Amino acid sequence: MQAFAQLGFFFKSASLRAGRLNGVHQDLPFYQGVEFYPPAHLAGAVHEVELAFVLSSSRLNVVLEADKHAGRHSSGDATGRFQMSHEEALHTDWSSEIDRWLAGLAHHARGGKRGHHQS
Question: Is pTM, for the whole model, over 0.85?
Answer without folding.
Answer: no
